[in-house]
């Protein structure tokens, strides 16, 4: 019990097999109807729950419908429109500046390459990967959010600590066809069972292969802390 398979690749494959059966139709939880809305939602989701973002964007998308709307917005007013979002002042600046760049350099269209997206203010690889996968149907990497970061370490698939290093390792052990859904499977499992502070190891479908299982082990490999 609580013993991982011999290699990270085998471990990842087994995790995928089980989570794919548990969550056969994984979906992104952010709500959007076009690429701009997706970009905005993902920028806002940094260190904020998707539920909170969805509640905020429901009215935001009625007011701001184009990159020009954000680019020409009064930044203080835009920040006020985001005031239930974490770091809303900074994110208002990101949205305004990113959309100015989209208008000036991309003819008002959300870019479709990793380099162009990550050149936008407030957009890192995680955000760019989400926009590419769900806005442009392009998969260049694995989205590493807090759930993926926690579970991939907790399950012994990687020992890397930084998101970019975790992504590199996941891309080497997870088949490319699963890169997009792998994120959604770990997010779903992280929300339902393998929570940050009190995972329900006794009811976990991965417990027997998890080297962090509280049933058999004393250390949470996600952060090296003792249970």
From TrEMBL:
UniProtKB keywords: 4Fe-4S, DNA damage, DNA repair, DNA-binding, Endonuclease, Glycosidase, Hydrolase, Iron, Iron-sulfur, Lyase, Metal-binding, Nuclease
Cofactor(s) the protein requires to work: [4Fe-4S] cluster
Descriptive protein name: Endonuclease III
Enzyme Commission number, as recorded: 4.2.99.18
Highest taxon, organism lineage: Archaea
Taxonomic placement: Archaea, Methanobacteriati, Methanobacteriota, Stenosarchaea group, Halobacteria
Binding site for [4Fe-4S] cluster: 194, 201, 204, 210
One Gene Ontology molecular-function label: class I DNA-(apurinic or apyrimidinic site) endonuclease activity
InterPro entries to which the protein is assigned, alphabetical: DNA_glycosylase, Endonuclease3_FeS-loop_motif, HhH-GPD_domain, HhH_base_excis_C, HhH_motif, Nth
Gene: nth
Reaction catalysis annotation: 2'-deoxyribonucleotide-(2'-deoxyribose 5'-phosphate)-2'-deoxyribonucleotide-DNA = a 3'-end 2'-deoxyribonucleotide-(2,3-dehydro-2,3-deoxyribose 5'-phosphate)-DNA + a 5'-end 5'-phospho-2'-deoxyribonucleoside-DNA + H(+); Hydrolyzes mismatched double-stranded DNA and polynucleotides, releasing free thymine
Any one of the GO BP annotations: base-excision repair, AP site formation
Record-annotated HhH-GPD domain positions: 44-192
Cofactor binding note from Swiss-Prot or TrEMBL: Binds 1 [4Fe-4S] cluster.
Functional summary from the UniProt entry: DNA repair enzyme that has both DNA N-glycosylase activity and AP-lyase activity. The DNA N-glycosylase activity releases various damaged pyrimidines from DNA by cleaving the N-glycosidic bond, leaving an AP (apurinic/apyrimidinic) site. The AP-lyase activity cleaves the phosphodiester bond 3' to the AP site by a beta-elimination, leaving a 3'-terminal unsaturated sugar and a product with a terminal 5'-phosphate.
Family: Belongs to the Nth/MutY family.
């Amino acid at each position: 019990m609580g013993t991982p398979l011999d290699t990270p690749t085998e471990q990842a494959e087994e995790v995928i097999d089980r989570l794919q059966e548990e969550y056969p139709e994984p979906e992104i939880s952010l709500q959007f109807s076009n690429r701009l809305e997706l970009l905005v939602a993902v920028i806002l989701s940094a260190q904020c729950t998707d539920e909170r973002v969805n509640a905020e964007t429901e009215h935001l998308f009625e007011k701001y419908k184009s990159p020009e709307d954000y680019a020409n917005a009064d930044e203080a007013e835009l920040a006020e429109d985001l005031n239930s979002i974490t770091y809303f002042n900074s994110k208002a600046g990101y949205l305004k500046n990113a959309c100015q760049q989209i208008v000036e350099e991309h003819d008002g269209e959300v870019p479709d390459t990793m380099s162009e997206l990550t050149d936008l203010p407030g957009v890192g690889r995680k955000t760019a990967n989400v926009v590419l996968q769900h806005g442009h149907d392009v998969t260049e990497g694995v989205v590493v959010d807090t759930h993926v970061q926690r579970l991939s370490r907790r399950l012994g698939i990687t020992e890397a600590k930084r998101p970019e290093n975790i992504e590199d390792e996941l891309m080497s052990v997870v088949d490319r066809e699963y890169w997009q859904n792998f994120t959604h499977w770990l997010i779903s499992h992280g929300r339902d069972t393998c929570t940050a502070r009190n995972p329900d190891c006794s009811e976990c479908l991965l417990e027997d292969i998890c080297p962090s299982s509280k049933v058999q082990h004393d250390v949470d490999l996600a952060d090296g802390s003792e249970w």
